[in-house]
């Protein structure tokens, strides 16, 4: 926290702020801070409506997660729009440039690892513009990823990213689903999909066994018919030869 300065006017921060965000004594700009300095967080506007998010989840449920039978047996909880803090690191620890995304919360919701920032519009954070969305607070510092992801923590940008969040119960298990507020992409617990996929090899094996048994039966029938025909032919030949003698 040494040498802190306002990210807006670069005025030095004389004393450590007691809370984040803080205000610059010179220009009045608000800024946040962590162990690596001061920063102005950004946010990505939510482009997906709650109706679109719900429709995407049901489509995901009926198509990806096991068919119509599965979608008929789930009941979605209320859709909640939340803004999750995300670190976007711009430089790796060895100095190479690169974009690495990581959650700034200890318990990230599914979908954060799938964010694609290449086409995301971002603005300086103004919580008044976030509407009724819940703003989740960071519980991790950028230093948590220094070794894990080999990134330079001083190059972090903090982005509050929108997700529509809901839950459902399936076979007694509570599952969380998120819808990317910018792209509409659905992410959720894959237990049902894994369960569905894991049954496919057994089904395929069963069909293979049935097919093999059918093939063997057919082969056995052909073989038996050939043996009978050969035996009959040999008997007729032997009888004719015996008469000729």
Strands, total number = 11
* Rg estimate, integer Å: 33 Å
Whole-number mean pLDDT: 76
Secondary-structure content class: alpha+beta
Spell the H/E element sequence: EEEEHHEEEEEEEH
Q: Which bin fits the share of residues in helices?
A: 25-40%
Q: What's the shape?
A: elongated
How many structural domains? 2
Tell me the quaternary state.
Answer: single chain
Q: Which band does the percent of strand residues land in?
A: 15-25%
Largest sheet: 8 strands, mixed
Report the total helices: 3
Q: State the end-to-end CA separation.
A: 118 Å
Poorly predicted residue ranges: 193-232, 234-245
Describe the structure.
With 245 residues, the chain is α+β, with helices and mostly antiparallel strands. It folds into two domains: 41-189, no CATH class; 190-245. Helices cover 30% and strands 25% of the residues. The chain is built from three helices and eleven strands; from the N terminus they run E-E-E-E-H-H-E-E-E-E-E-E-E-H. Strand 9 (156-170) and strand 10 (173-180) form a beta hairpin.
Key words describing this protein structure:
2 domains, alpha+beta, three-stranded antiparallel beta sheet, 245 residues, 30% helix, disordered C terminus, eight-stranded mixed beta sheet
How would you briefly describe this protein structure?
The protein is an alpha+beta fold and 245 residues long. Helices cover 30% and strands 25% of the residues. It contains three helices and eleven strands, in the order ββββααβββββββα.
């Amino acid at each position: 926290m040494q040498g802190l300065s306002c990210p807006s006017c670069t005025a030095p921060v004389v004393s450590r702020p007691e809370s984040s965000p803080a205000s610059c004594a010179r220009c009045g700009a608000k800024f946040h801070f962590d162990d690596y300095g001061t920063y102005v967080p950004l946010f990505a506007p939510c482009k997906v409506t709650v109706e679109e998010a719900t429709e995407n989840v049901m489509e995901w449920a009926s198509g990806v997660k096991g068919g119509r039978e599965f979608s008929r047996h789930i009941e979605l909880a209320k859709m909640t729009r939340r803004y999750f803090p995300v670190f976007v690191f711009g430089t790796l620890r060895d100095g190479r440039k690169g974009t690495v995304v990581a959650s700034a919360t200890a318990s990230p919701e599914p979908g954060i690892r799938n964010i694609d920032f290449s086409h995301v519009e971002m603005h300086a954070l103004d919580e008044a513009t976030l509407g009724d969305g819940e703003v989740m607070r960071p519980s991790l510092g950028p230093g948590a990823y220094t070794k894990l992801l080999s990134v330079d923590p001083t190059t972090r940008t903090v982005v509050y990213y929108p997700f529509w969040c809901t839950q459902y119960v399936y076979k007694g298990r509570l599952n969380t689903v998120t819808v990317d507020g910018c792209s509409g992409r659905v992410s959720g617990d894959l237990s049902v999909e894994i369960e569905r996929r894991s049954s496919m090899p057994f089904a395929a094996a069963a069909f293979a066994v049935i097919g093999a048994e059918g093939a063997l039966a057919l082969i056995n029938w052909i073989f038996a018919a050939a043996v009978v025909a050969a035996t009959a032919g040999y008997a007729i030949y032997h009888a004719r030869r015996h008469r000729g003698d």
